[in-house]
Amino acid sequence: MAHIIVVGNEKGGAGKSTVSMHVATALARQGFRVGALDLDVRQRSLGRFFDNRSAYLAQNGVDLPSPDFRELPEIDAATLDESENVHDRRLSTAIAELEREKDFILIDCPGSHTRLSQVAHTLADTLITPLNDSFIDFDLLARHDGATGKILGPSIYSEMVWNARQMRAQAGLKPIDWVVLRNRLGAQQMHNKRKMGKALDNLSRRIGFRVAPGFSERVIFRELFPNGLTLLDLKDTGVTTLNISNVAARQELRDLMAALKLPEVEPVA
């Protein structure tokens, strides 16, 4: 069975698609057979990344290891059972096709609550939740007393993950390994970083996730997107010298892949 990685967060702008692009491509470059799905059928950030990648490879005559990106299949409503949801069938059909031939399936979820996203979370072996280093984003996970620093209770996204865990347990599936990434970190605001770190550590013990390092806020990610490239592709596309920021970004990707502890994954070179 393919190992399913879901990248989810019900708030936009946390860097889900950037994480999805790099994790999926890092796995492909290690020789794994990787499938990828984008459940944001409106914005299609991950889908457009792979469109850009295909165009770049064709225009430049180069061959880079790449995930197998698939669109969700269209479903004839007449084939649905009376109580069956069309979105459930679209996702289950895509997963069934990929599972037969892939080692990993990565699913990028939209930055909002949708039926597709909800179902995808129940399929996750590994759930990656990128989170901006801000208490605005922290509120997605838990309600927080700003005066005392106490956690008042889980918030909407955590409750959705809890429900997904319950459904997997009832089906006899292994627990979700939930990894929260401190993403898009700035170079300043050390006091806020310490407060966020403490709050996340406290919350992780209460609702059961691991905290891992994500990506800093860097221009390179925006520059790579139009060509569908990642940090790991640069040397293979003629970039022989990396600046300090690019080297640091590659190290962040290595640290992220190591922190995910995915099965049979070697350290990123």
TrEMBL record:
InterPro entries: DNA_Partitioning_ATPase, MipZ, P-loop_NTPase. It comes from Rhodovulum kholense. It comes from the Bacteria. This is Chromosome partitioning protein.
